[in-house]
Amino acid sequence: MNYAGYSNWRLPHKYELDDFFRNARSYYDWFNVNGFSNVQADYYWSDYEPFFSSDILSYNAQTGEALARDRSKKGFIWPIRADSQTF
After folding, report:
1. For position 79, what pLDDT does the model report?
2. How confident is the model over 33-81, as pLDDT tens digits?
3. Strand 66-70 vs strand 55-60: parallel, antiparallel, or unpaired?
4. Region of residue 84 (left: phi > 0; alpha: psi -120 to 50; beta: else)
5. What residues have CB less than 8 Å from 71, skipping those under 6 apart?
6. Would the pTM count as exceeding 0.85?
7. In the chain, what are the domain boundaries?
8. What is the DSSP string of the chain?
9. Using 50, 70 and 90 to split pLDDT, how confident is the model at 1?
10. Which pLDDT score is estimated for 87?
11. d(Cα 71, Cα 31) in Å, to the nearest integer?
12. First to last CA, the chain
C-alpha cells in the first residue's frame, strides 16, 4: 500500500494496540479532538493471529477490550509505519 508517499505500512502488533487503547475509556474522545480524525468506536485489528484459528486479535477503541474475532467480521485498521518501534 502506498499512502502519503510511503509504502512501508503495517498493522500494529498486539502490544502496541494494547498500550494505545489501555485507557480507551478516558481517551477515546481525545483521539478525535487532538490530531486524529474519524476514530471509530469499534474494533481495530492487530497483526496477531491466534494459533490454529481464522481469528485476528482486535481492540475496541471505546472500551479497550481485546478480543479474538473472526476475520469475516468488520474491523478497522490503524496503520503504522514499518520503521516504527516493534516488539
Report:
1. 87
2. 777 788 888 899 998 887 778 899 998 888 888 889 988 888 898 888 8
3. antiparallel
4. beta
5. 54, 55, 56
6. no
7. 16-32+40-81
8. --BTTB--EEPPPHHHHHHHHTTHHHHHHHHHHTT-----SSEEE-S---TTSSEEEEEETTT--EEEEETTS--B---EETTS---
9. confident
10. 47
11. 25
12. 22
- Are the CB atoms for 66 and 55 separated by under 8 Å? no
d(CA 70, CA 21): 20
1: its cell numbers: 500500500
The pLDDT, as a whole number, for residue 20 is: 77
Starting at the earlier edge strand, list the strands of the sheet with 43-45: 43-45, 55-60, 66-70
C-alpha cell at 46: 492487530
